[in-house]
């Protein structure tokens, strides 16, 4: 497979490295910042430029990775598919569920592969947990809990990440979507039927007063905009009767050490498990020989970006979805995000 990359930022560079690690050629890199595109392309002996059309017109490319700000996901993926390219589209799939509907329709019309970059499915713990669930070791899983707490992690304050018109939201649509996708994946892709949530903007919006400790996509631009959430919480009920409890923070005042910074937990009627998002092991609870026992399963390290790229290349070759998120699955995440923002705005639960 020969790949084009749209967006030579943080994630574009990771996709390029992942591609070559699994034998996929990087043929062209485009970024609206031509120097940035040239710098990344130079590492891979690829062509570069600042016009996305050069990707669509390059007949040597089979597929495109799209890693640009969220507001460009829908229009760029539509153009790529209509130009006959298969697409690995970064998360979130789009800004809203109706935008996802347009992408689903276009993928069907054009017959293109559209995979959404929910990479936590490919981590050692994400794929390990899926294996445990699918083997039936937990019995029926009735509840998932997922949290991720950054203390002062608002990215690119004043830039596209914190400008709702470009990002669609803050911590929830940036990081919360990973937790939602992983929860849906592990629960077997149920459909959300009720959502009660809140989203708060307490830190970034203070701009100069925000005392930050780390800032990816920085430095801050104090003349820019911050109008997005930095903490969100929700309880999601699914058609299966299962529930998912979510908390996600770019920034919050939870003292360090209170709970793990991240955790995904599954409660089943025969067993349970928990893990940290970038951990190397699962903790398991089950009945063994008539006793309740906890155990630890340490997993071999993997590179989730490479596994995701290999899965995408296989989907392109076989025209069959692999482990990666399909457009319909990407929309499920987005419908929950939309409902959390609606529930927040109306201060009441939302039924779907
Ligand atoms: N899967 C993950 O774990 C993960 C991690 C990081 C980012 N992401 C996603 O990847 C996307 C990009 O994030 P990032 O951290 O790389 O951002 P970034 O700001 O580092 O890079 C974005 C790049 O896109 C370029 N760009 C902006 N608008 C463009 C346009 N219209 N056409 C072409 N190029 C354009 C910018 O010049 C920049 O180089 C986001 O959607 C983000 O949610 C996913």
From TrEMBL:
Q: Which UniProt keywords apply?
A: Oxidoreductase
Positions of the Gfo/Idh/MocA-like oxidoreductase N-terminal domain: 2-118
Query: From the Swiss-Prot or TrEMBL record, what is one GO molecular function term?
Result: nucleotide binding
* E.C. number: 1.-.-.-
Q: Which InterPro entries match?
A: Gfo/Idh/MocA-like_OxRdtase_N, Gfo/Idh/MocA_Oxidoreductase, GFO_IDH_MocA-like_dom, NAD(P)-bd_dom_sf
Q: Which domain of life is it from?
A: Bacteria
SUPFAM superfamilies the UniProt entry points to: Glyceraldehyde-3-phosphate dehydrogenase-like, C-terminal domain (SSF55347), NAD(P)-binding Rossmann-fold domains (SSF51735)
- The UniProt record lists the GFO/IDH/MocA-like oxidoreductase domain at 129-273
User: What enzyme class is recorded for this protein?
Assistant: oxidoreductase
PANTHER family named in the record: D-GLUCOSIDE 3-DEHYDROGENASE, UDP-N-ACETYL-2-AMINO-2-DEOXY-D-GLUCURONATE OXIDASE
What name does UniProt use for this protein? Putative oxidoreductase YcjS
